[in-house]
Design a protein that fits this description.
With 142 residues, this protein is mainly α. It has one domain. The chain has 6 helices and no strands. It is flat. The N and C termini lie far apart (49 Å).
């Protein structure tokens, strides 16, 4: 990875969608969101892999946010990116896991809405629709 020639002590004034901006936006997802992703694994032979992927992503983001001076070391940024990409490619295997993933996606859409020039409002609406539909379907299956 290319190293920067200098370190800026002030925050950037732009709001472009960068890895650092994404990590900062995702960091605001609190402990309550983590609690909603807790798997109900009682009686299951194998836990849904999505819960581990969500947890790994949240931990990686938290490690980046914990950097006091704002200069996230490459290894932490790389770990966060890898966890995020792994989460994007992990398929839930249970209805509860699917609900946790759609909730996570909805939270991410809400967090990036104010930090993106993309059509974030439409993306937020889409993720909310998917999240609500999954929860409604799971409720009818219960």
């Amino acid at each position: 990875m290319t190293q920067a020639d200098s370190v800026h002590s002030t925050s950037p004034t732009n709001t472009s969608l960068t890895r650092r901006n994404m990590i900062g936006a995702m960091a605001t997802v609190g402990a309550a969101a983590i609690a909603t992703a807790a798997p109900a694994t009682a009686g299951l032979a194998e836990p849904d892999p999505i819960f581990a992927a969500i947890d790994a992503d949240r931990r990686a983001v938290a490690a980046c946010v914990a950097v006091v001076d704002g200069d996230i070391p490459d290894e932490l940024g790389d770990r966060s990116t890898a966890a995020y990409r792994a989460l994007m490619r992990t398929r839930p295997t249970t209805p509860t896991g699917l609900a946790a993933l759609t909730t996570w996606a909805r939270e991410m859409a809400d967090e990036i809405e104010g930090h993106s020039v993309l059509r974030a409002e439409d993306f937020c609406a889409l993720t909310a629709t998917i999240d609500d539909a999954v929860k409604a379907l799971i409720g009818t299956l219960s």
